[in-house]
Specification:
Length: 354
């Protein structure tokens, strides 16, 4: 049964996790994601789940490891500096092929930075976020509704591929309030014969580890893992195309920057400029093929982001630098305005007209 309620993004994400069957949450407070833990501190008690405020972010991510190893749906959340502290644990989760959901409600950095929204953790998230060769699936919500729906999707993807899924949000999406439809999803049946559930004398014991002293065995583990990652790229890449049918200028943006960009595209269209938007919903896997196809028809790309061009690199790689890519960015916690993005579109249109 679906219910429409007015909720803050962080709280919608937390409730969606409960509805998806998550009963274990381990975290540590940090602005601007603290509402997730505060909400679940009450909600988990109501559904017979476990909430634990760990002694640190490092403690929290390793508690996630333990619960996941026991076959449970488990999550943690933090904001940029806290995710950095969890990076070792993210690598251990990947090295042990354990599913988990990790939420990063980004704040400005580097260092302690500020509590305002940012998108400067893009590289950290899409390149794994820890040591060694591994990837996380990275989902980028652009609304409170997607904070809920992508969380539920994230748990399914984590279980299906035995991977960590990261929700890469930002302080604006986490703190804003919008109507959201909350519904209990049909659980995707996933067997976990590898989990540490006790043998009951009926099977061989399971061992979960990321330590392999034989180079040949470790190489085989990595090759097998990346074969699975290739399946994720083939099956799970997701994006939204807006006004791309006849676009000559293509904006690429995610999260709150995409909402700003969509308004700018509409304003540009009203002025007769054929602009469009590709919004990555999966930041990894990145919608490389969609951008490559767009490069066959558009004249240039604009990367709209709240970082110093971190996503711009992936756009250039996707299109093999066959079209110019211009960076439109604000950093330090400043959100680009629709007027700023529209002005950039107009400049690009003028340059193409010369």
């Amino acid at each position: 049964m679906a219910e429409t309620v007015l909720m803050k993004g962080n709280e919608a994400l937390a409730e969606a996790a409960v509805l998806a069957g998550c009963r274990h949450y381990f975290g540590y407070p940090i602005t601007p994601q603290t509402e997730i833990g505060a909400y679940l501190s009450k909600r988990m008690a109501q559904v017979g789940g476990v909430f634990l405020q760990a002694e640190s972010e490092i403690g929290a991510i390793h508690m996630v490891y333990g619960a996941s190893a026991a076959g449970k749906r488990v999550m943690t959340s933090s904001s940029s500096p806290g995710i950095s502290l969890k990076s070792e644990g993210l690598s251990y989760l990947a090295g042990s092929d354990l599913p988990a959901l990790v939420v990063n409600v980004q704040r400005a950095g580097p260092g302690l930075g500020g509590i305002q929204p940012s998108q400067a953790d893009y590289m950290q998230a899409t390149r794994g976020g820890g040591h060694g060769d591994f990837r996380n699936i990275v989902l980028a919500p652009a609304s409170v509704q997607e904070m809920a729906s992508l969380t539920q999707r994230g748990f399914d993807l984590a279980d299906q591929y035995r991977m960590t899924v990261m929700i890469l949000s930002d302080g604006t999406i986490g703190q804003m309030m919008e109507p959201v439809v909350l519904e209990t999803p049909t659980p995707m049946p996933v067997e976990k014969p590898w989990a540490l559930t006790g043998t009951q004398g009926k099977r061989e014991k399971n061992i979960i580890t990321s330590l392999y002293l034989s180079p040949a065995e470790l190489e085989e583990k990595n090759l097998s893992r990346f074969a699975r990652y290739k399946l994720v790229q083939e099956r799970e890449t997701d994006f939204e195309a807006y006004c791309m049918e006849d676009a000559e200028i293509c904006l690429v943006a995610y999260g709150i920057s995409a909402r700003v960009s969509k308004n700018a595209v509409a304003a540009a269209r009203a002025k007769g400029i054929r602009a469009g938007l590709i919004r990555p919903i999966t930041l990894w896997p990145f919608p490389t093929e969609a951008l490559r196809q767009a490069a066959g028809t558009v004249k240039r790309f604009l990367s709209v982001e709240m970082s110093m061009g971190q996503m711009m690199t992936d756009i250039e790689l996707a299109i093999r630098c066959t079209r110019p890519v211009t960076l439109i960015s604000r950093v330090g916690g400043v959100i680009p305005s629709p007027e700023e993005v529209l002005a950039a579109i107009e400049r690009a249109a003028d340059e193409e007209a010369i």
